[in-house]
Amino acid sequence: MDDRYPSTTDHQSVHLDYAYPDAERELNRWLPLVKWFLAIPHYVMLFFLNIALVVVVIIAWFAILFTGHYPRRMFDFVEGVIRWNSRVAAYALVLVTDQYPPFRLSL
């Protein structure tokens, strides 16, 4: 047996950690009633970005197949869309922050 690649002993999954908020001091008590409404512009943008994401992932798959590496700009776009989805979910669905998510792919 050979243990070079892929390693099955390394922890290879991705973790997403939301900071646990101090609800009494950090979160507005009435804001969850309107957070879903305030997130509608994000949902509209993310709808189109997710369509573009599927196209980019298919193109990236062929690029990886033929060149052997993931094009950096495609990777940054996919990472940015996933990051934006996570910020909107933290704001509107998980309710761990009152900070309105920015309309951008980067941090």
H-E string: HHHH
Low-confidence stretches: none
Termini distance? 43 Å
Strand share of the residues? Answer: under 5%
How many helix segments? Answer: 4
Q: What radius of gyration results from the CA coordinates?
A: 18 Å
Describe the global form. Answer: flat
Whole-number average pLDDT?
Answer: 85
Structural class: mainly alpha
- Give a count of the beta strands, DSSP E runs of length 2 or more: 0
Question: Helical percent range?
Answer: 55-70%
Seen as an oligomer or otherwise, the chain set is: single chain
Biggest pleated-sheet summary: none
Short description:
InterPro entries: DUF4389. It holds the Pfam family DUF4389. The chain has a domain at 23-93.
Commentary on this structure:
This protein has a domain at 23-93. The chain is built from four helices and no strands. The model has no long low-confidence stretch (mean pLDDT 85). It is flat. The longest helix has 28 residues, at 40-67. The protein has 107 residues and is mainly α.
Write the layout of secondary structure elements.
Blueprint: H1 23-26, H2 32-38, H3 40-67, H4 72-93
Helix pairs in contact: 3-4
Any descriptors?
57% helix; mainly alpha
